[in-house]
């Protein structure tokens, strides 16, 4: 493990869910300070302890603590939204996000007999990330980590064989998520364009879920043809 | 080059465009018989000659000819739709597609100052592939090859470092596209679920176009974690 160039204080909303816990583990493993948020601190603390136990012996690991979502947010530089779409808007509207970099990993999916598919947001012209930006106009929202397998995040591999795609309208905020991606994939995230392209990244997770069912795997996206330098 | 297990007669609608011409070249290179279709045979024939010239010396290559779209269709087992979204519905409705396997590669994209993005089809609950199926109910439509770079299809590499994602509601028709994918990537396509997931594959091309602009490349999708066997 190499210490990251910048060490962030990261609050993970939905930090007790599989995606949030897995991302928190990966970020702390790379030296970032992580607060896992949940509805109540009582729910978050034991999960933080579980992650902390897993980091024992990892040189340079950051600390992991638990708090209520709002408390976790208050002290953070970066707020990761790893919450279900159901209830997303109310939660985001309730958080102290002013001035923060917000990374949305939210996947608005629906499931029926035919499998997973994307939910239609704002008549096809919206996404969870754009909703978050509208609800928190004084924050800077980017989308990233949508398509990363929660199972693999919590797994044994040092890095996931996946690329992290990052979308956003702020170059600086995208840069934060591109840097954080190193914790997951061992290399920078890929700048995949403007925030509205979250409309494509979020429901693509339904495609990966279909592939997972068919091939009994944990599929991920890699982008071929991109030179990220220094890999 | 190894001869394919099944050699298809493939008609490529929009066969004189970069995607259609590139796919036709790759299919013929692998031993399939290809007819490039265009609005008029006069437009298609010189492009077919160009592809044929490029195949000189390729052992086992199939023939490539040119015809009007409707004529090309009539004799084909497999009809590839590689046409622009603009005019797509009128064209599909005009073609003799009854009983055929139809592979839609159509990407309904829009472009503005902020770059490429997906067009909203049917209020977010549709896709070009689903539109084609509705217009040709006696054909079997699958979606595939949406995200494959036209530049690389016409390029020098033996195979593209990309996966071909295939969606559809018929296992048999998906099997055809999964097999045809070998011509492009050197391995089978990936079964990515039901036809409605074309809603995700089609506009994902906007993400790749954004990546191409940012990194000056021809990006493609690879799916990690899937064992396609016998690679």
UniProtKB/TrEMBL annotation, chains A, B:
Keywords (A to Z) from UniProt: Oxidoreductase
Annotated Pyrroline-5-carboxylate reductase catalytic N-terminal domain residues: 9-108
Coiled coil: none
Superkingdom of the organism of origin: Bacteria
Signal peptide boundaries: none
NCBIfam families listed in its UniProt record: npdG (TIGR01915)
Name assigned to this protein: NADPH-dependent F420 reductase
Species in which this protein is naturally found: Nocardioides nanhaiensis
Gene that encodes the chain: npdG
């Amino acid at each position: 493990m190499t210490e990251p160039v910048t060490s962030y204080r990261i609050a993970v909303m939905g930090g007790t869910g599989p995606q949030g816990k897995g991302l928190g583990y990966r970020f702390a493993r790379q030296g970032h300070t992580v607060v896992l948020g949940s509805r109540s601190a009582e729910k978050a603390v034991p999960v933080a302890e579980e992650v902390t136990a897993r980091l024992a012996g990892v040189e340079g690991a950051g600390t992991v603590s638990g708090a209520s979502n709002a408390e976790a947010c208050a002290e953070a530089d970066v707020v990761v939204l790893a919450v279900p779409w159901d209830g997303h808007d109310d939660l985001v509207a309730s958080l102290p996000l002013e001035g923060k970099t917000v990374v949305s990993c939210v996947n608005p999916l629906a499931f029926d007999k035919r499998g997973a598919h994307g939910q239609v947001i704002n008549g096809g012209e919206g996404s969870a990330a754009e909703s978050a930006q509208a609800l928190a106009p004084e924050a800077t929202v980017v989308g990233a980590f949508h398509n990363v397998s929660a199972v693999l995040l919590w797994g044994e591999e040092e890095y996931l064989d996946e690329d992290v795609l990052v979308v956003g309208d702020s170059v600086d905020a995208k840069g934060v998520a591109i840097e954080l991606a190193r914790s997951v994939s061992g290399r920078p995230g890929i700048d995949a364009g403007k925030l509205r392209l979250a409309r494509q990244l979020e429901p693509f997770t339904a495609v990966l879920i279909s592939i997972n069912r068919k091939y009994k795997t944990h599929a991920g996206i890699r982008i071929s043809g991109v030179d990220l330098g220094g890999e």
